[in-house]
Specification:
The chain is mainly β. It has one domain: Immunoglobulin-like (Sandwich).
Length: 151
């Protein structure tokens, strides 16, 4: 049974993930797929909020969370979350973790704290890897200039 490939049901990146103590349900808050670079504040503390400089939408998330839901996990399985800039396949971070489930039919859900995400313009992917080699899925995040111009 240990050789059965797990199935990724959900991979989300969000500002916060909470778990209800009574029900065990996860509450995923602030799911995002776009971040906008913040405009640097001048030393005098003023910020130019003209249409070219304001952040139109999105959020610089700081240290977000990844929410995962997997099925067909039997026993202890090794995974990693790798954050990759797609333009050149540069890896920003790689988090290794294990999931243990006695019953592969029950979903395994977990939240993993991520380090601060890079805010250099580009398109990134948070990739879920099984057993150090097998990709199970990914979640794309775009980092945009403050004006929201295309990359």
């Amino acid at each position: 049974m240990a050789g059965i490939k797990p199935v990724l049901q959900a991979l989300l990146v969000a500002d916060h993930v909470y778990q209800d103590k009574l029900t065990g349900k996860h509450v995923v808050c602030g799911v995002f797929g776009v971040m906008f670079r913040h405009v640097a504040t001048p030393s005098d503390g003023t910020v130019d909020l003209s249409s070219d400089n304001r952040i139109k939408s999105g959020f610089n998330s700081g240290s977000p969370f990844a929410f995962l839901s997997l099925i067909d996990v039997h026993g202890e399985q090794k995974f990693s979350l790798r954050y990759v800039r797609l333009r050149d396949d540069a890896v920003s971070f790689n988090i290794k973790f294990k999931v243990n489930s006695p019953d592969r039919l029950n979903p395994c859900q977990t939240a993993i704290a991520l380090p601060p995400l890079p805010v250099v313009d580009g398109v990134y992917a948070l990739e879920l890897i099984w057993n150090d080699v097998e990709p199970l899925g990914s979640y794309r995040i775009s980092v945009m200039p403050p004006s929201g111009e295309n990359l």
